[in-house]
Amino acid sequence: MKIRKPWGFTLVELVIVMILLSIVSLYATSRYIGAGSFSALAIQDSVISVARQVQLNRMQSNTSISSDSFVLSIDSDCFGSVKGCAHPEGRSDWVANSEVRFSAPVTQVSFDLLGNPLGLASGGINIMIVGEASQATVSICANGLISRSGCL
User: Fold this and answer.
1) Rg of the Cα trace of the chain?
2) Nearest to residue 59, comparing CAs of 111, 124, 131, 24?
3) pLDDT tens-digit profile of 103-150?
4) How many CA atoms, within 13 angstroms, populate the side-chain half-sphere of residue 26?
5) Among 94, 87, 52, CA closest to 73
6) Are 118 and 110 in contact (CB under 8 A)?
7) Half-sphere exposure of 47 toward its Cβ, with a 13 Å CA cutoff?
8) Per-residue pLDDT at 31
9) Rounded-to-integer distance, Cα 138 and Cα 135, Å
10) Res 1: pLDDT
11) What are the residues whose beta carbons fall under 8 Å from the beta carbon of 58, sequence distance 6 or more?
12) Structure confidence at residue 9 as a pLDDT band (50, 70, 90)
């Protein structure tokens, strides 16, 4: 008499898989339903990246002449280089999202060749990113540090 091994799954294995799938799907749907509340925090990293890109472009330019690619523009609906916000096609030095607004005490920030902000922003500024249900801050410090944690 031959004893055959069962080829199917046991009821316990099926129940455990169903429980795991339901937990993962509940987590995923909660992230999609509340996507609007995370918009300001999600944009915060993009703003930091763009600000650092414009600052680094200025530092690598090694010229005394500042062009629109090296000046950071802070408009209510666009954040990035002056040239990037004016003509965004094919450029990576700007960020805009219809769900958030940007605000700062100045509308433009220029950098020197060491990456330090000039003019009214020389003492450091905070850029507010305000979404429908959230807000975030990006700080450009007097020593050129760009972060989300503020200036020390």
Assistant:
1) 24
2) 111
3) 999 999 999 999 999 999 999 999 999 988 788 999 999 999 999 888
4) 6
5) 94
6) yes
7) 34
8) 63
9) 10
10) 67
11) 66, 70, 110, 111, 112, 113, 115
12) confident
